[in-house]
Each structure stands twice: as structure tokens, then as C-alpha cells.
Amino acid sequence: MADVMSMEDIHATAARLNVDLSSLDLGSIRLPPAEDFGIVSDDEDLKEEESLEFEEGFANIIVVDNLPVVPKEKFEKLEGVIRKIYSQIGVIKEDGLWMPVDTETQKTLGYCFIEYNTPQEAELAKEKTNGYKLDRSHIFAVNMFDDIEKFMKVPEEWAPPETKPYTPGENLQKWLTDEKARDQFVIRAGTDTEVLWNDARQSKPELVYKRSYWTESFVQWSPLGTYLATVHRQGAAVWGGATTFNRLMRYAHPQVKLIDFSPGERFLVTYSSHEPSNPRDTHRVVINIFDVRTGKVMRDFKGSADEFATGGTGGVSGFLGLFSGDLWGGGKDDKYFARIGKNVISVYETETFTLIDKKSIKVENVVDFSWSPTDPILALFVPELGGGNQPARVSLVQIPSKEELRQKNLFSVSDCKMYWQSNGDYLAVKVDRYTKTKKSTYTGFELFRIKERDIPIEVLELENKNDKIIAFAWEPKGHRFAVIHGDNPRPDVSFYSMRSGTSTGRVSKLTTLKGKQANALYWSPSGRFIILAGLKGFNGQLEFYNVDELETMAQAEHFMATDVEWDPTGRYVVTAVTSVHEMENGFNVWSFNGKLLYRIPRDHFFQFLWRPRPPSFLSPEKEEEIAKNLKKYSKKYEAEDQDVSLLLSEQDREKRRMLKEEWDRWVSEWKRLHEEEKLERQKLRDGEASDDEEEYEAKEVEIEELLDVSEEVISFD
């Protein structure tokens, strides 16, 4: 590196050498080739190949192409037209519209740049106006400014993509082959997310995988248990594997708030809502449907919240039914999905992600729909119109034919809610009706038998029509349902069957349990057993009930419980207290009949989810055969249980033996020290040798002590 000289040093050196600097031509000086004497030229960067660099942060700018090329005198008029179109979508920044002009012809170049306040407004403008027809000759081509760099990097010549060698991945279903037939669950507590085995035999969970800051919001299993999804500010991700839980795919969706899988796990739906820059505007909604395996966006829906609101509801709902399982139809084949709009139900098929027959189903004033869990059948609800002149109705529509299978008119309706049975055999419609005075309401049920000829409908009314319905739940894969009805704090619980004795065509009441502290119903996934739960205001009251025998198996309490979750096999159930309460956070694991197996306390406990299992490959006949011969099969597992019990007993005995040995060692050490200190103790006792207090004699010893001495001179005068 060359030495640096000041200008004073240079002038002094020039004077000493008799050099006139003013007459010196510095440009004529040439250095030897490849020699710079350590001095880097200011123009060195110009020798490098020019590369276009784009600053980040242009996500709120769009480029509008295919504009009319106009002279200077028409510039203002064209700018006004463009501004009018694009200011309807969002707020354009001051000086945020720029149309370049050819310096030679003074005409516009046929494109412009528009800068919005937010990237969301820019994306919406692109979505709404790309392909906009200004006139016959000018159709807008709109792109994000940030995409230009990507377009400029496209090579001039096409090259075939590189073929990567196949590398087999992990078996994502390996957890199903657990020799102990255990189930997994995921919990979130504090900053940690953990996947664990439920080892009820050992009365404790076994850790599979643990990770801190795994998600920024919540986690969710896919419906068949193959994937675990996490949610982040940039989007969502799915994870899977035998024990490591590797990330399998990412799905870009900034500020995503909700996610949900299709029943067959082929697709992932993500939802977000963004605040507008103009307070008078509604939120902007973005919904993406991804292919789970490839991460490709198969279809997206963007627009203002008003565009996703159904007629009469006034809320964002068009796709929000997907988060309660009402988006997808056709069962686990994921064939169809639907959205609700003003006076229409739009049904799409997933082969091409386009509307069936290229048009929506027109239904005046439709406000709700619900898919059958197993068949491509839509249940639609239309409220009353014209002050009751046009009755409310529930319709069943077959997809893809759009044929109406059944319709039921309903009068004096206040509200309506639909409940499908898990096999799609029955549909219960809870109907709240006005009394004649219109001052109060009462509730009844319309029960549709979907699989029977002509879909017969039965009407069920409670004995006390004025009872408030607190909860309703179908038995999974069964023909029974339960209803909590009446007034708090001790409502009644009634059980009904869609069969009556030998007849399968009539609903019948099985029993009513009076005065129960319950406000929620939780059927076992295998049916037969149900938990009557008193959550929130009832402080976690639990009653384990056998519906086959119509008897209570156990009553218990989990103080302040907020959640009840059955495992997918119906063997175990978890009650949890989440962080909505500051105290008692954690979860309890119970057997199906109400025996508490173990407790796990966790501070800041947020979430508990059992890992779902895919459907069994066994036929119904084989399952029935196993149930009949259960005693034969159970011998093997009873023997295993006995072995585990003996092992646990042996472990307990070993633990007690070790504790006793530790105690004996402590006693021996104490005795040794006691013996070593014997002489010291004897000395402290004035030679008394015995440590037995009973051998001591009490002696009274008088001690004289001079407390004070004073002298005083007394005068005899």
C-alpha cells in the first residue's frame, strides 16, 4: 500500500526538485502495466460488468402496460382516466402516478407506474385490473414492480430443467406401526412445542420431538395425521417424519391467520385479513388453496371483506366455513369445494379448480350451507322473506348435477343450524321458531334420513317446548344423539335414537338425565360412551356415561377445565386447563370409563391436540368379527399388561430397595461419626460416659456470685 502524502508535503517535494506543479499534465502520466502502486482508482467499478440492481421495498408499486400512446396535449386527460380507475382500489400516494414520456416525440411510452400506500392495495390492484379492457385496442397488462427483476433474469434460450436423482423420504406413517399401539399428541406450553406418546401403561408420556419457537401462532394436525402444520408471519409450513419432524414444504402467505386441510390432505387453505389504509374501506381478504405436496397455489381468492359477505349476515363468511369443515365436499376424495356469495353458492371441482358447468348455483338470499361429510350433497338454508310471506327453507342439492333432492319449508323461523352425522346418514336441523306473539322463541328439530328412499323427514319437539337448547351432538358412526336442554345451572340431558325397537324409521327417546351440571357433550370417536362436561362456569364437572347401558360409569372434576379431547381410538380422553386461566395450567389423562391415569402440569399451557389416525383398512364385517371374538384377541394384550404391571412392580421394589440402602448407609455413617465424637461428649458432660439421658442424676449446685462491690465513706460528724 502506498504512503499517503499531504498537499504540503507534495508542494515541498516539488520545490525541492524544482518542479512547477501548475505546468504538470497529470493525464500524461502512465503507470506500468498492471501496476497501481496500491492506489485504487475511483473509476475501478466502471470496469466491472454493469448489473441492474433493484432496491427492496417496492412491493407497493405496480406497472401498468398497454396504455394508449398519446401526445403531450392529451397527457392530462389520460392521467385522469388512469387515476380514476386505480384510486377506486386504494389510496395512491402523492406524486404516486408516473407516465414516462419519449423525449424526442413528446409522447407517452404506453406504460405507467402507480405507487400505493400498502403492498396489499398494490396486489389487489393487480388482481382487479390485469386484463382490464380500456377499449378495443388497449387491454391492461399489470405486474408488480418487484417482478420486473425476475422477468429480466429469464434466459434468452430455453434450457431443459435439471433432472434430480430420486431420494426416498422418510415413512410419514411409521408412527402407526408402534408395537404398543400408542397414540401421539402435540402440546404447546411457553415457547416449546412437543410431540409425545401417550404411554398409559407407564402412567406418563414419552417424548418424541421437542422444539422451541416452532410456531408463531398455533399448530394443527392434518385430518389423517400425516402432517403437522405450523403458522408463521411469512406463511405456513408442514412437517413430518418418523421421529425428527423435518420440514416438508412451505406455503408463502404473509400475515396468515387461519389454515385448514382438505379431508383427504391433498390441499391446504390459508386465510388472512388486512386492514385498509383508508379507514372507510373494509378489510382486504386473501385466501389461497395450495397443493400440499408441491406447494403450488392452485386457486386464490382476493377482495374486500364485502365481497366475501353473504346476503343478510354482514360479516366475512364466504370461505370462513372452511375452518369448521364446511368448505370441502365429496368426502376424503377432495373432489369439490364451495363458497357462498350474495344469492349464489359457487361450487368448484378440484381437477381444474373452475366452477362446475362454469356457473354458480343461484339461490335467492341463501345465508348458510353445509356439506355432507361423506357424499357430494349440499344442505342450504334460506331464511324467511317478506315478513313471513315467503317461508324459510332447507334444501338438499346433489353435486355435480345440481339436482334438488329434498326441500323442507319452515315457518316463523328465527334461526337455523345444521348438524350432519359423521357417516352422512342423518341431518339434524335445529330450528328456532317465534311464538304467536313474536315475543319469544321455542326450538324443534327437523331430522332428515339421507340414505333412505325419498329422504323422509321427522319433526322432534322437546316435552317442554320452551327449554333452551344448550348443546347437540350426534354419536359418531351411530344412530343416537344427545341434547342438553333447560335452564342453567342444572339443565337436563336427553338421549334419542333414530331407531325405535325393531323399526328403523322412527325417532325414539332413550332417557333423560335430570339436573346435570353440564354445558358440553363429547362423544367417544367409537360411539357408545359420552362425557357430559361442565366447562367454564361449571368449574370442570365431568360425568362419564355409558349410553348402551344407560348408566354413569364415573363422576369426576378437573377444576377450571377448558378443553376435552378424546384420542382417535376412544380409549383415552384428555381434559386440559389452558392459559385463559392463570392457574392450574396443564392436562389430565383419563381412561374411557373415568379413571384418572396421570396429570401433567405445565405453565403457560396453550394447546393440546391428539394426532388423528387414518381410517382402518378392515371391512365392517371384519371389525364386527373382531368385536365378537374380543376375548380371544384380548388375552394377548392382557398378558402384555400383566408383564408391564409386573415390570412396574419390580421397578417399584427396586426403587424402594435403593431408598432403603441409601437410608442404611446414612444411618451407618451417623453411627460412625457418633462413635468418633464419644470422648468429646464425655468431656462436655464432666466425665459422664453414658449417652442415655435416663441414667443422669439431677444435682442441685449452689453457686455464689459477687455481683457488685462499692465503697462509701461515712462521716461520723
From TrEMBL:
Domain of life, per lineage: Eukaryota
Residue ranges the record marks as coiled coil: none
Gene3D superfamilies recorded: 3.30.70.330, YVTN repeat-like/Quinoprotein amine dehydrogenase
GO cellular component terms attached to this protein's record: eukaryotic 43S preinitiation complex; eukaryotic 48S preinitiation complex; eukaryotic translation initiation factor 3 complex
Subcellular location: Cytoplasm
Keyword annotations from UniProtKB, A to Z: Cytoplasm, Initiation factor, Protein biosynthesis, RNA-binding
Pfam families, A to Z: eIF2A (PF08662), RRM_1 (PF00076)
GO molecular function, one term: RNA binding
Keyword RNA-binding: yes
InterPro entries: EIF3B, eIF3B_RRM, Nucleotide-bd_a/b_plait_sf, RBD_domain_sf, RRM_dom, TIF_beta_prop-like, WD40/YVTN_repeat-like_dom_sf
Keyword Acetylation: no
Major site of localization recorded for this protein: cytoplasm
Family membership noted in the UniProt record: Belongs to the eIF-3 subunit B family.
Function: RNA-binding component of the eukaryotic translation initiation factor 3 (eIF-3) complex, which is involved in protein synthesis of a specialized repertoire of mRNAs and, together with other initiation factors, stimulates binding of mRNA and methionyl-tRNAi to the 40S ribosome. The eIF-3 complex specifically targets and initiates translation of a subset of mRNAs involved in cell proliferation. Component of the eukaryotic translation initiation factor 3 (eIF-3) complex, which is involved in protein synthesis and, together with other initiation factors, stimulates binding of mRNA and methionyl-tRNAi to the 40S ribosome.
Family matches, as PANTHER family: EUKARYOTIC TRANSLATION INITIATION FACTOR 3 EIF3 -RELATED (PTHR14068), EUKARYOTIC TRANSLATION INITIATION FACTOR 3 SUBUNIT B (PTHR14068:SF0)
Description of how the protein assembles with itself and partners: Component of the eukaryotic translation initiation factor 3 (eIF-3) complex.
Official protein name in the record: Eukaryotic translation initiation factor 3 subunit B
Taxonomic lineage of the native organism: Eukaryota, Viridiplantae, Streptophyta, Embryophyta, Tracheophyta
